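Reading a protein record of the kind used here takes little practice once its layout is understood. An example of such a record is reproduced below.
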Amino acid sequence: MSIRSLIVERLKLMVPAFEGRVLGVVDLVAVQQSYIKAKSCYIWRNKTKASPNDSLNFLNQIIQTEYAVLITTKNEKDHGGIDSSDVADDLCYQIFNALAGWQPLESSFCMSYERGQNYFDRNMLFWTEYYSLPRTAQTSYDSVDWTQPYPYHPNYPGAYMMTTDVAVQTGHPVYINAENHLELACAESLPRAQGFGLCAFPANPGGNVSVYVDGFISRADWTPITGTLFLIPGKTYYLSNTEPGKLTSTPPTTGYLLSVGTAIYPDTLDIEISQLIQLI
């Protein structure tokens, strides 16, 4: 499924006010002819740009793709006195909560907000929001691999590439062992309680994985990490003191206390790793 299609499905799920009217660029013909209903949304890939290649011998670029999200509402006040700009503002807020910081794929970066603009046509208000999704393009021999950023890229300071000694999944909390490799963290005792960050994608033992120490991380299913399908928005999540590689919304009472982040959406965690506290 394309990134655009994933965005369409996410907005259908996360913005119920559209009542499923989240469509593609082909449907813009209906928009131009005004054969539309209020509170509709249209998604298309708007433009792509790339950073300069920073290697002479192989390809290594940041590819930034921008997606347009067009909102349509009637340009009039409803019976309650709420005009179309208020309706559009509310829809923009819901779309922001759904897309900003979301990872469409477990191997991709998070989406970020770029800008918005409006225009009027007949009795309709059109507001377009723009979101971008960066990826890295790298070549090894004659193949292209879309991957996570290489270590310490200046545009992504919250991600570090390290070698793992154990199998990890997206969202697994990890610590750095004596060999400067990663293992699953656990708040039971030191040094495992010294959680370093959360894995950005799956990796096998001996493989390299990006670890996020800041920013946002998303999973469609958090069961392997928290034991529940979804996160609880507003809840703080802590490193488990009973199971390595697990997070819990219940603060541990023994061992060590390390808060890892706060859920901002059922599938998205805002990573904010606290100072480690020993519990007495």
Notes: Helices lie at 3-14, 28-32, 84-99, 223-226. The two ends are 50 Å apart (CA to CA). The chain has two domains: 3-139, 155-278. Residues 155-278 form a domain with the Virus Head Decoration Protein; Chain: A, fold (CATH 2.40.300).
